[in-house]
Design brief:
two-stranded antiparallel sheet, about 80 residues, about 20% strand, about 20% helix, extended, alpha+beta, 1 helix
């Protein structure tokens, strides 16, 4: 019975999950206080909330954060 219900609902789910649902999406809202990560059409957007920062932390000595071919841990700290 569950399989039958799933088979009936599958076409509806596929119709509702269209790839063009993001056309009216507002990525940036200056009044938003919550930081968020959004993935739209294969792109990742890190959006900080108003008055908030986005930080990346490494928990072990042998871990790195890479940006393309650049290891961000190897960039000199200017403090």
């Amino acid at each position: 019975m569950r399989l039958f219900r799933f088979a009936l609902l599958l076409p509806l789910l596929l119709f509702e999950a269209r790839a063009d649902d993001y056309e009216d999406l507002r990525l940036f809202n200056e009044d938003e206080t919550r930081s968020r990560l959004m993935m739209v059409d294969g792109n990742m957007y890190f959006v900080s909330g108003r008055g908030k920062n986005i930080s990346f932390h490494i928990n072990s000595v042998d871990s790195d954060i890479w940006f393309g071919q650049t290891n961000l841990g190897m960039i000199p700290n200017k403090h």
